[in-house]
Design goal:
The strands form 2 sheets. Strands 2-1-3-4-8-7-10-9 form an 8-stranded mixed beta sheet, sandwiched between helices. Strands 5-6 form a two-stranded antiparallel sheet. It has one domain: Thiamin diphosphate (ThDP)-binding fold, Pyr/PP domains (Rossmann fold), CATH 3.40.50. 28% of the residues lie in helices and 17% in strands. It has 288 residues and is an alpha/beta fold.
Length: 288
């Protein structure tokens, strides 16, 4: 009997997503991206939130960290600052990253910390049985909103662009080949990168299905004259939702990262600094 050859970045963890879940496409795209850029598993950290999306780090053979709901971005930032030589990705859903963690998203974007944030946006809180999320569409009916969702839907692209994110993109879970290319560019980008991933939830969201998206999606880069460095055009396109929904890279900007401006880590990562001779007693005594 021959021993099966292990797939790159795969482990033996049992996948517990629903059959047909959009998360499978995202998992495939992420692994393909790692293969393309030849990422070393020991140099990659995936930080997971709470929810269906955040099971993804369990299924990838890299380092991973599980955080509190909504706190995935600051944890990823902390890891990056402690060892800026690592490739760090924050993985979460629309509820955790846009809801509980919306403030963290804003400040990580404006600081331009070099992490990649992958948001699995299925427009519901799927793990807790389909409650509305920040990106649920106005009028969306669920068991807890039988008369329709009354709030205006959160637009993560406009918010991130306005906050100062230097890379903003949108992909579709059921197009893993295209999503792979977007994730590759996001990881390679030197700065804060947000990838909004439209993801059908086959169990609870019966409106925004795979077919619903396929009837509306089009590639931004197919638009003649689209300039990925034009912020005003990116903001304009980020407002487009309805009969036509754009996917692709909306915006890219080269700007110094937060960690590149810290003299303490110019020579070596923070984790390698010798702190044995640091004496803060005078600082403590001055504040008594």
């Amino acid at each position: 009997m021959t021993t099966p050859v292990p797939q790159p970045y795969s482990n033996n963890a049992k996948i517990t997503w629903c059959p047909g879940c959009g998360n499978f496409g995202i998992l495939t795209a992420l692994k393909n991206a790692f293969i393309n850029i030849q990422a070393k598993p020991e140099e990659v950290v995936l930080v997971g939130d709470i929810g269906c999306s955040s099971k993804l780090p369990y299924y990838v053979q890299t380092y991973s960290f599980g955080g509190l709901h909504g706190r995935v971005v600051p944890i990823a930032c902390g890891i990056k600052l402690a060892n800026h030589q690592l490739t760090v990705l924050a993985i979460g859903g629309d509820g955790g990253i846009y809801g509980e963690g919306g403030n963290h998203l804003l400040h990580a974007a404006r600081r331009n910390i070099n992490i990649t944030v992958l948001v699995h946006d299925n427009k519901v809180y799927a793990l807790t049985k389909g409650q509305t999320s920040p990106t649920s569409e106005q009028g969306y009916k669920s068991d807890i909103t039988p008369e329709g969702f009354r709030e205006k839907s959160f637009n993560p692209l406009i918010i991130s662009l306005s906050a100062g994110a230097t890379f903003v993109a949108r992909g579709f879970a059921d197009q893993p080949d295209v999503l792979t290319l977007i994730i590759i560019e996001a990881i390679k980008h030197p700065g804060f990168a947000l990838v909004e991933i439209l993801q059908p939830c086959v169990s609870f969201n019966k409106i925004n299905t795979s077919e619903w998206y396929r009837q509306r999606l089009y590639a931004l880069q197919d638009e003649g004259g689209y300039d990925v460095n034009d912020l005003s055009w990116a903001l304009h396109k980020a407002q487009e939702w309805g009969d036509r929904i754009p996917i692709g890279i909306f915006y890219r900007e080269e700007r110094p990262t937060y960690e590149s401006q810290l003299p303490a880590i110019n020579e070596k990562p923070l984790k390698d600094l010798n702190i044995e001779r640091i004496d803060i007693s005078s600082l403590l005594s001055s504040h008594r």
